[in-house]
Structures are given as structure tokens and as C-alpha cells.
Amino acid sequence: MTVDTSETLDRRSFLRSASGVATVAAVAIAIAPSMVTEAQAYDPGEDETRAKYQPDAADVQAFYRSNGYETLKDK
Q1: Using CA atoms, how far apart are residues 36 and 22, in angstroms rounded to an integer?
Q2: How many angstroms separate the most distant Cα atoms in the chain?
Q3: DSSP secondary structure string, 47-71?
Q4: 54 near 60, Cβ under 8 Å?
Q5: Which of these, 18, 28, 44, 71, could form a disulfide with 48 (CB 3.0-4.6 Å)?
């Protein structure tokens, strides 16, 4: 009986190499969170946190007037 000594990738060697890759990936995932730094908080400032809707503004009053909301109040 002859033994095939060619360097082919059989099932056993494929699974052995795949498990090695999976081990390396698991170690990389385990180490990655320790490299993350704390995130900087975003400060929006006063301009972005102020109230934007002003019901007494002229454009808001014109919107409600032109869409007939005043006529609905009478009913």
C-alpha cells in the first residue's frame, strides 16, 4: 500500500487551521475593548437647546390662518 504524501488540504487539516483562525479572532475580540478610550460628550450649547417653536411668530400664525384652523374653531 502506498501512502500519499502530497501536501493536499484534507478535512482534518482544514478543520485544524479553521479552529486556529477562530481562536485568533476570539482573542482579538477579547482584547479590543481594552483599547477603546472613553467617548467625549457633545455639548450642544444654548443655541441648539433653546425652544424652536414659537406660537406667536408671524409665520406660525399665517400657517394656521391659511390652512383654515380658525374656521374649525367656530364649529
Answers
A1: 22
A2: 103
A3: HHHS----TTSHHHHHHHHHTTHHH
A4: yes
A5: 44
Question: Looking at per-residue confidence, does 5 or 16 come out higher?
Answer: 16
Residues constituting the chain: 75
Q: pTM of this prediction?
A: 0.33
Which amino acid does the sequence have at 1? M
CB 68 within 8 A of CB 74: no
Cell of 62: 399665517
Given phi > 0 = left and psi -120 to 50 = alpha, else beta, which region is 21? alpha
- Which of these, 36, 56, 12, lies nearest to 64 by C-alpha position? 56
